[in-house]
């Protein structure tokens, strides 16, 4: 009898411990703490801004898509004299301190709705949206939407949180030290595989091995002391199939370190890209020479039919 009570007491004790642990995770939220702290930087819509016409945009797809939409939001709002607004739960907050007002569709009041015609082409209609609050819907994959705010995006908007930026600096210092490449020109190589290998028929081309050799040799001819940083969503394929020379370093960041990968690639001096919006953005923000795969998107496919190449690829990027 006494023994049974003792056991029960012990069970209660463990139950109590379990509840404590659950409460700890619920309230302390140890994995999300960074993101919560980052939300503190968000600027609400001010009372004085209540009647100013506003612009909101859809955020579809992944990080690279969201960066296109955000940049378009800023460029198009400026052209139309509208106040740009994004929602508090946008994933871009996890990467950047964004200097825009936070709100939701209710803050627009009566608004116009505009849907893009092609996913990767410039639509001049977006220059004539004001003076009404507007919601624009689409992917908006063209540098022409935000050419007017290019500098501002780089110097004021896409600024990484300090911890991500410092981790990326450290990553590059470690890579240079390990490869004994002090003072080298650093070339970020984005090796996009994964879903792009499986969706070839739509036009999501994954570049062939020969492209990487051509592109890397292009930079080896151009600069003498060089280090390639290889970043891939399939690093095993990359290591098995691509160059293993003394000037090549493979990143083994895990898939949940996408923000670190982006920051590392942007800090590289020049970029070799393949396909997809992640590739596009690291090239755009790193600001050096850019080489891209000329068969993305694959001609004649549905993605190619939704793309105007001159609107998608900036003119100074080099196709190989
Ligand atoms: C190359 O990139 C590194 C790392 O971001 C930077 O420290 C260095 O100044 C850059 N070099 C040139 C020539 O831009
Ligand atoms: C793409 O456009 C071409 C030319 O207009 C057309 O022949 C082809 O069927 C289209 N392909 C797809 C997959 O939409």
Word description of this protein:
- The chain crosses the membrane at residues 12-28.
- One of its GO terms (cellular component) is Golgi cisterna membrane.
- It is an enzyme of class 2 (transferase).
- The chain folds into two domains: 43-157, no CATH class; 162-319, Rossmann fold (3-Layer(aba) Sandwich), CATH 3.40.50.
- 41% of the residues lie in helices and 14% in strands.
- It has twelve helices and twelve strands.
- The chain has helices at residues 2-28, 33-39, 63-80, 150-157, 162-178, 195-198, 209-222, 235-241, 258-267, 277-286, 302-305, 309-312, and strands spanning 43-44, 54-57, 83-86, 101-102, 112-115, 134-137, 185-191, 226-232, 248-250, 270-272, 290-292, 318-319.
- The strands form two sheets. It has a six-stranded parallel sheet with strand order 1-4-3-2-6-5, with helices on one face. Strands 9-8-7-10-11-12 form a six-stranded parallel sheet, sandwiched between helices.
- It is globular and about 60 Å long.
- The structure holds 2-acetamido-2-deoxy-beta-D-glucopyranose (NAG) (2 copies).
- Residues 172, 186, 267, 269 line the site of one 2-acetamido-2-deoxy-beta-D-glucopyranose.
Q: Strands, helices and their partners?
A:
Layout: H1 2-28, H2 33-39, E1 43-44, E2 54-57, H3 63-80, E3 83-86, E4 101-102, E5 112-115, E6 134-137, H4 150-157, H5 162-178, E7 185-191, H6 195-198, H7 209-222, E8 226-232, H8 235-241, E9 248-250, H9 258-267, E10 270-272, H10 277-286, E11 290-292, H11 302-305, H12 309-312, E12 318-319
Parallel strand pairs: 1-4, 2-3, 2-6, 3-4, 5-6, 7-8, 7-10, 8-9, 10-11, 11-12
The structure holds 2-acetamido-2-deoxy-beta-D-glucopyranose (2 copies).
Pfam families: Glyco_transf_11
EC number: 2.4.1.-
Membrane topology: Single-pass type II membrane protein
């Amino acid at each position: 009898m006494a023994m049974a009570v003792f056991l029960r007491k012990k069970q209660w004790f463990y139950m109590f411990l379990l509840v404590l642990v659950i409460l700890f995770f619920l309230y302390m939220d140890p994995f999300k703490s960074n993101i919560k702290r980052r939300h503190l930087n968000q600027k609400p819509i001010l009372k004085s801004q209540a009647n100013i016409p506003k612009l909101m945009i859809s955020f579809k797809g992944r990080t690279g898509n969201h960066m296109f939409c955000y940049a378009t939001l800023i460029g198009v709002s400026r052209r139309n004299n509208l106040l740009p607004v994004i929602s508090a739960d946008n994933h871009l907050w996890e990467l950047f301190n964004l200097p825009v007002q936070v709100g939701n569709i209710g803050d627009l009041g009566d608004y116009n709705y505009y849907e893009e015609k092609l996913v990767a082409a410039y639509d001049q209609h977006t220059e004539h949206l004001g003076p009404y609050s507007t919601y624009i819907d689409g992917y908006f994959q063209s540098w022409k939407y935000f050419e007017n705010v290019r500098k501002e995006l780089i110097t004021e908007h896409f600024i990484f949180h300090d911890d991500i930026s410092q981790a990326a600096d450290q990553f590059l210092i470690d890579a240079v030290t390990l490869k004994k490449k002090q003072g080298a020109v650093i070339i970020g190589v984005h090796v996009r595989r994964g879903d792009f290998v499986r969706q070839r028929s739509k036009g999501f081309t994954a570049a062939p091995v020969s492209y990487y050799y051509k592109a890397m040799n292009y930079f080896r001819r151009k600069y003498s002391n060089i280090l390639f940083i290889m970043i891939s969503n399939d690093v095993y394929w990359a290591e098995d199939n691509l160059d293993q020379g003394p000037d090549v370093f493979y990143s083994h960041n895990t898939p949940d370190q996408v923000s670190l990968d982006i920051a590392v690639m942007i800090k590289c001096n020049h970029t070799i890209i393949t396909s997809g919006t992640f590739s596009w953005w690291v090239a755009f923000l790193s600001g050096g020479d850019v080489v891209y795969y000329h068969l993305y998107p694959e001609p004649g496919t549905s993605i190619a039919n939704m793309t105007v190449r001159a609107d998608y690829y900036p003119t100074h990027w080099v196709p190989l």
